[in-house]
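Colleagues,

For the teaching module next term, I've prepared a clean inverse folding example: a structure given as tokens, and then the sequence designed for it. I'd like students to try predicting residues themselves before seeing the answer, so please don't circulate the second half yet.
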């Protein structure tokens, strides 16, 4: 999760200044950045270097990623009149650079490439709030005061995610992840009513067009909506560090495939603490084959790459011997 990011010195050396979206538009650079953690850590898959607001940015909505802040929309989406700004997303026209990056990586990688996109709710929250939010006041206000406009926006963003992921898979991706990072801000009732149908559309349509491609569903602080997120149709449910693996399988089914879920803060605490965290996650999984070992959220910028090297080597050693 965000493995090709902010903590690597080699990433900082080539990333350049300004918005991440500028770097993404350079296929050779994006491919090189995607390859960096595979080369350094020996991880089992490569996560495409991109961002969840790429489709919205590419259609000219007016959203960028401000360094140190995150996605910022100069004129947020606030009413039905703004639907005119959310036109259909055409990957071959709007993001040929992402497709080219995937093609470069497909030719160079010896491990699978993971595609990804933002789930409709999380992308909508950025477009509506205009920047990262703690309260989601404008998002929730639109949901409850103009439900028709809300669902129309969400349907369009679902189509964006479907088109984006399909283009990545067709260019060499082997699996995909749908990030609903902020779905945990919703109650279960509101998630079921306002978000789940649109995420389910993404998984359903991708299952129809790419029936053998696994899809991962991930959110932060989503323990209270775990069943609902899994019912949206993913092959794998991502867990943050708050939800125990055995508890998730007790709720979702004994054979549920899970991804997670080492607390990123334990990585910051150094190798001895991180090692104990790895042992706890592996013990929690209890040797179940349907487990993608991962962090329970992204790599923090001040993470020591050496600790991540230890984690990858340690987990490989423990699981290959077992």
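(Answer key — instructors only)
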């Amino acid at each position: 999760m965000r493995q090709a990011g902010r903590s690597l010195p080699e990433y900082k050396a080539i990333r350049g200044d300004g918005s991440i979206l500028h770097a993404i538009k350079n296929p050779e650079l994006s491919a090189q950045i995607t390859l960096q953690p595979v080369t350094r850590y020996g991880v089992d898959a490569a996560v495409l270097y991109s961002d969840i607001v790429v489709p919205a940015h590419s259609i000219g909505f007016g959203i960028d990623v401000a360094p140190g802040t995150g996605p910022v929309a100069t004129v947020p989406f606030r009413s039905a009149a703004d639907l005119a700004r959310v036109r259909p997303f055409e990957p071959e026209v709007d993001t040929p650079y992402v497709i080219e990056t995937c093609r470069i990586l497909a030719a160079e990688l010896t491990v699978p490439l993971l595609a990804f996109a933002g789930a409709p709710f999380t992308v909508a929250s950025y477009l509506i709030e205009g920047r990262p939010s703690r309260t989601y006041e404008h998002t929730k206000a639109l949901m409850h005061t103009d439900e028709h406009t809300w669902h129309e926006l969400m349907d369009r963003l679902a189509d964006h995610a479907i088109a984006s992921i399909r283009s990545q898979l067709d260019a060499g991706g082997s699996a995909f992840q749908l990030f609903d990072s902020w779905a945990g801000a919703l109650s279960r009732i509101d998630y079921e009513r306002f978000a789940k149908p649109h995420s389910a559309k993404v998984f359903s349509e991708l299952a129809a067009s790419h029936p053998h491609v696994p899809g991962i569903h991930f959110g932060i602080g989503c323990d209270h909506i775990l069943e609902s997120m899994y019912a949206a149709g993913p092959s794998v449910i991502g867990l943050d560090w708050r939800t125990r693996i055995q508890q998730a399988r007790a709720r979702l089914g004994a054979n549920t495939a899970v991804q997670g879920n080492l607390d990123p803060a334990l990585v910051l605490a150094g190798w001895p603490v991180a090692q104990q965290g790895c042992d706890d996650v592996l013990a929690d999984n209890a040797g179940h084959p349907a487990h993608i070992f991962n962090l329970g959220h992204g790599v923090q910028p001040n993470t020591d790459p050496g600790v991540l090297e230890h984690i990858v080597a340690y987990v490989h050693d423990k699981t290959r011997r077992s």
